[in-house]
Specification:
Radius of gyration: 16 Å
CATH topology: Rossmann fold
Shape: globular
Number of strands: 5
Number of domains: 1
Strand order of the largest sheet: 3-4-5
Length: 189
């Protein structure tokens, strides 16, 4: 398990990253998740793209031959790879929201990250499951656009919306574990 916290592009604490740790050594990740606090920005949007780029750059375990976490019945081994995005605000650009510059001071994108569509395509093409959990309705637009990318490639099973209780961040890992166990049971067994 790993953790990537992201803020907006101009924030001094833009990213907070802990690379993968294996069970049972998850206390560092658990403590980081439980201690994260939101930081206000100067617009509604956040650097979601940068956060997902950081997640893709972590030390993922490669799966045999095709580097996909999607179960292939012809292969004897497979690792489940997942990104869980807990979203309260959309990323920058019109792919992420339809509110224009009233929400977004970087509507044309950020200078140091790829466009969101390219990042989502990489997640899909690498066979990584993307679990989407919303804390506000601000992410409805981007979630629909993300789901469309997977649907258009007949990979609907790779993207799922999950419900997490935003009022109880201390139980996130337990809530997430339940969703992961369900996906593993339905997709890999």
């Amino acid at each position: 398990m790993a953790f990537v916290a992201y803020r907006d592009y101009t924030n001094a604490e833009r990213f907070d990253v802990i690379d993968f740790h294996q069970a049972p050594n998850l206390d560092l990740v658990r403590n980081k998740i439980e201690s994260e606090k939101p930081i206000a920005n100067d617009d509604v949007c956040e650097d979601v793209q940068g956060g997902l780029e950081k997640a893709l750059g972590l030390s993922w375990t490669r799966t045999p031959e095709n580097h996909s976490s999607i179960r292939n019945k012809d292969k004897s081994s497979c690792a489940a790879q997942m990104i869980i995005w807990v979203g309260d605000c959309p990323g920058h650009t019109a792919f992420c929201h339809d509110k224009g510059t009233t929400w977004d001071k970087h509507l044309t994108g950020l200078p140091d990250v790829r466009p969101m569509k390219e990042i989502i395509m990489e997640i899909k093409d690498r066979g990584i499951f993307l679990l989407l959990s919303k804390f506000t309705k601000h992410v409805d637009f981007i979630f629909k656009n993300i789901e469309k990318i997977f649907k258009d490639d007949n990979k609907n099973n790779q993207v799922k919306r999950i419900s997490l209780n935003p009022e109880d961040t201390t139980s996130f890992l337990n809530q997430i574990s339940q969703h992961i166990n369900t996906i593993i049971a339905t997709e890999f067994m």
